[in-house]
Amino acid sequence: MPVRPAPPPPPTHAAERAAAWLDARRGRALLVLTAVLLLLRGLYLAELLHSPFADQHRWVNSDMSFFDDWARDIASGDLASLRVGHPHHGWHRRAAEVYFSRIPGERERWTQAGRARGIDAADALWDAWYGGPRFHQEPLYAYGLAAVHAMSGGTVWPALVLQSLCGAGAVLLLLLFVRRRFGAGAAWCAALLAAFYGPPLFFEGVLLRDSLLFAATTALLFLADRTSPADRPAVLLGTGACLGAAILLKSTFAPFGALAVAVAWSRMPPGQRLRALWMAAGLGLALVPALVRNLYAGAPPLSLSSVGVATFVNSNSPAFRPETGDYFDLDALARVMPAAHDSFLSAAARTVGLHENVSGWLVQVLRKLAAVFQRYEHPDNASFYFYREHIPVLSAAAIDFALVCALALPGMLARRRAGVLLWGAVILALAPLLVFHSNGRLRLPLAAALLPFAGIGLFELVRAFSRPWTLRPWLWTAAVAAVVLAMSRPRAESVPFIRFADYIQPWNLRYAPLAAQAQQAGDPARAAAIVDEALKYRPDFLNGWNRCYRNDHPEAARISGWFADLYARQASLWQSAGNVDRAAAAAHSAAALRAPCGRADGG
């Protein structure tokens, strides 16, 4: 007679009993969690779509604008992405000028090459360096956005809604993954941390793929971990297709795709391991559309992005400072980019060779590691802190990267054998940040991979405190606090908390066009009132009690001067409208911002 396995022992500590109680009612708990996730996102989008941040994708030369323009081209019929080309910014032109000055005759050569296409020499040069018809960045986000534009008539908010739904789904998948691997207590702790982790919520409202990278990391962990010998070929094929789709979203997922296939292979019985090839086949099939497009366009068949070499050069040259993100080394670009046609490895070797020795480059990599593990959300395209100042619900999402890392530390110590998939996800998410560079949005996949460990760490901490008095929980608490403090170190002096470019975008993208329309309609009072709306986005340091901040910070002085000009514009508009009192008040504010520190009267 078969012997039934003994039931698990009842939970003995308060934390375990609470986790068991919650898990016994997980259907209702999941509904509550889902409601909280949707409420946060609904409030965020409601506030965002009624603010100038809804126009952020119109910021010319930003990644948001690039993806939006690319998607609109696809939706209008450019299915092979032949028209979008490569974006060219000011730093591209400056690097080209350095290259032309170094090599006589190159300007004339590329001028002739560009004339046939109606572009100048610098653009022709960079198109060649980027590989001509190659995708500039991985295509899945642009094609998905194109589908949304085609169905919604080109408005942006449906894409943001879908990103928000993916973000909510990522939290639920995280809970299911951690529950299956590490138990209910760690799962609910991880879900709680993810639900109130601010950066992914913020990026769900920005027309960038980064919130989807966070969601994809969680989804891939969930799917790859559940792979078993009992899976049908269709299930393995579908899992592989999801891995391939993630690679089309960002090619840095390719190593994890290979790892997931290898893990599936190892889980199969020796006689059935060839079944893991279904997973590899699914991954390959997902890449077929990109391969066909590349063959049609004349690009290398497997190329998904062309920015890797330029990014590596900029972020690995001797002039690169990981602490500040000072990014563009024009001389290094001019020296190394001509080698980009050889191979990425050749260009990378030349870049590392610009250092006095390899140890100098390795020290730079260690500085990158320190820059990754910093509390500050370094802005890229959009500023988390600027949004948070004006969209209050983001302040409710109070969990930050420092706390996730700090809680992940005891989680890693408690589950050193957490499995190759989870440890692999952490290492493979960290690697691109060291090979290239990091900022707030680029480390979202790393945060997603650390959250399971953070959930484990939080639960272990709570469970340790629910036991009779021991020293262990206090040591863990001290370690968590030490990590948070270490990551809260001051940012580099030259790095502003919020950039000049962020402060001026509400005016540039929304209020300036509205004010111009009001002026053209002969309504200067309406135009002045619109300027008043833009002035709500002025920084706190322009207030009288801390105006002296701008004396020692060039970026702050630049911001102060710009808002002084905006007040002067408003004064002129009120004067034209015949409102002398309001014109005088605006002129006084302009003079106060231009006055030396301590002379707020502008006299």
Secondary structure elements and their pairing?
Elements: H1 14-24, H2 26-49, H3 63-75, H4 90-102, H5 106-115, H6 121-129, H7 140-152, H8 157-182, H9 184-195, H10 198-204, H11 210-226, H12 233-249, H13 254-267, H14 277-297, H15 308-316, H16 330-336, H17 344-353, H18 358-372, H19 384-390, H20 393-396, H21 401-414, H22 420-435, H23 444-465, H24 472-487, H25 500-520, H26 524-534, H27 554-576, H28 580-594
Helix pairs in contact: 2-8, 3-7, 4-6, 4-16, 5-6, 8-9, 8-11, 8-23, 9-23, 10-11, 11-12, 11-23, 12-13, 12-14, 13-14, 13-22, 15-17, 18-22, 21-23, 21-24, 22-23, 23-24, 25-26, 26-27, 27-28
What would your notes on this structure say?
The chain is globular and about 80 Å long. Among the domains are: 63-130, no CATH class; 500-594, Alpha Horseshoe (Serine Threonine Protein Phosphatase 5, Tetratricopeptide repeat). By secondary structure, the protein is mainly alpha-helical. 66% of the residues lie in helices and 0% in strands.
